[in-house]
Amino acid sequence: MRVSQFPLFTHKEVPADAEIVSHQLMLRAGMIRKLASGLYTWMPFGLRVLRKVETVVREEMNRAGALELIMPAVQPAELWQESGRWKHYGPELLRLKDRHEREFCFGPTHEEVITDIARRELKSYRQLPVNFYQIQTKFRDEIRPRFGVMRAREFLMKDAYSFHTSESSLAEGYQAMFEAYTRIFQRLGLRFRSVEADSGSIGGSVSREFHVLADSGEDEILSADQGDYAANTELASSPGPTIEKQSPQAAEKRDTPDTDTVEAQARLLALPLDRIVKSVVVMADDTPAVLFVAGDDELNLVKAARALGAEDIRLATTGEAESATGVPKGFIGPMGLPEELRVLVDERAATATNFSSGANEKDRHWINLNWDRDVALPEVADLRLARAGEPAPEGQGKLCSSRGIEVGHIFQLGRKYSEAMNATVLDESGRDQPMYMGCYGIGVSRIVAAAIEQNHDEQGIIWPAPIAPFQLVIIGIGMDRSERVRQAAESLHDQLEAAGVEILLDDRDARPGVKFADAELIGIPHRVVIGDRGLDKGKLEYRARGAEKSEELDYDGVVDSLL
Ligand code: ATP
Ligand code: MG
Ligand code: MG
Ligand code: MG
Asked: What pTM, to 2 d.p., does this model score?
C-alpha cells in the first residue's frame, strides 16, 4: 500500500477535548472522527486495526465451537417486557417508535433476542450445549460518553450466549469461554488480568471480567500479591447495576453535581430519592447505617460504606447527619467500629493522603474522606477484607491496587432469562426444563483504545504486532528527486507485498521529518529508511518502533533479512 493511495489524515496538534492518550492518538493518527457525542466514524486506517481485533476474536470463538450469527440491532419492546428489563434497564436503553407507534429499542445487549431464538429452535436436550455469537454494533445511551471509542454510545461488541441442560454443563461452557478469552487477549499481545466482577444489569451470579492493565483505566483492580485472587472494586457497589467510576481528570473538571445525573445515579444505586442533599455518611455500631448524600463523590462514599458492610443506606439532610454524629459536614464516620478495625483505620489514615481519622467530643470514632479527591477505595476494600478476617479466596498476602480497562465480561446467567421467557427443552425423561444460560461479551472497539493506552510513547502509538494495521513502513528520502531511491523503495515494497507482508510505502513529496513523525505517530512496528547516502554504501536503515537506535542492513538480500 502506498500513502499516495491510502491517505493518513494525521494531525500534529493534540485535540483539546480529548482527555486520555488513546483518544488523542486515535484522533491524531486519523483512526477515528467524531460525529456527535459517543458516535465515531472508523477511518480506513483505524478500521484496519478494528478488523484485526475482530479476526482474532472470531477465530478463537470458532475454535471454541461457538456458532456465528447476526441478530437485528433493533429489538421489539415486547421481548424486553417479557424479561422485565423494559422497566428496569433505565435511560441507557435507547427507545424508539416506528411509524405504527410500536415500541422498539436499539440493542445494548441481546439476551432477549437470543432467548427468543433458543425457545423457538431448541426443543431437546440433544441439541445442547450450544453457543451462538455475533460481532455487532451496540448502542448504550451512556450517562457520560467519553474517552473516544473507549466509552462510546455506539460501539462494536462480540456477544455470545450459551445454552445448557444443567448447571454443570453451564460451568463447563463458561470455563471454555474463560479459556477462549485468555487465548484472545494473549494473541492480541496485551497485558491483561481476569478479575471477579459484579454482574450489573445483565444479571446472574458468577461473573468475571477481563481487564487490560493501564494506569488510565476507569476500574480499580485489587489483586493478591501471592496467588491468583483479583477483583474489581466495583463489586463493593453491588447489588444493582454497575456505576461508572470517576477518572481523576474528570473529577478535577467537575463542579457542582448535576441533579439529573445524581438522580439517575441514585436510582441506579436503588436509593430512595425523596431528598438530595450534600451531606454526611454515618455508620453506627457493627451493622452500620448510612445517612446518604448525593453527588459524584458521595456515590463513591456509598460504595465505600457498602464495602464496610453497610446495609441500611438512606438520604439525610446535613442537619440530621450532624446531629446523629456530632461531626461537621464532610465526615464519614464508622461509629463504634470493632477495635481491631479501628487500629487498622488509624494506621491507614496515618499514611493515606485522602483520609484521616480521629475521635469526636463524644469519643466516637470517625474517618474523614477527603472531599476533593477520589475516595480511597483500595484502602476501604482492604478494610472489608481485613474485617472478614480471612485472606482473599485463592490468593494470599497483601492486596495491590492497579487500574484496568474492562474489555471482556463473562457471566453464568443461570435460568433468569429462560424462566422469564419460557425457553425450555425436553430433558432425558421427556419433561420440559428451562435452559441454563451463559453470556460472554468482548468490547471489540474498546480493545483498540485499550491497546493504545497500554502501548504508546511521546511520539505516538506502538502497536503490538498482532493488531498493527501494517507491519512495516518504508520511508524514501528524496524519492521525488532521486530515481535510484524511488526504484529501491518501490522494488522493496513490491517484493515484501508479494511475500505477504502488510506494508506501507510513504511515497509522498513530504519532508523526511514529516514522514518520520507520521510513522512514529501511527505506530507501525518496523521501519525501513532508504536514501541516497545509504545506497552509496549499499545500506538501508532499519528501526523497530520503540527501539532507541537504528541498525544498518545490507540492501542486497534485505527482503530475506526483513522476513
Ligand atoms: P462498563 O463497566 O465499562 O460500562 P459494562 O460492564 O457495562 O462496561 P458489559 O455489559 O459487560 O459492559 O458489556 C461487555 C463489554 O462491552 C464490556 O466488557 C466492554 O468491553 C464493552 N463495552 C461496554 N460498554 C461500552 C461502551 N460504552 N463503549 C465501548 N465498549 C463498551
Ligand atoms: Mg462493567
Ligand atoms: Mg456499562
Ligand atoms: Mg461488564
From this structure: 0.76
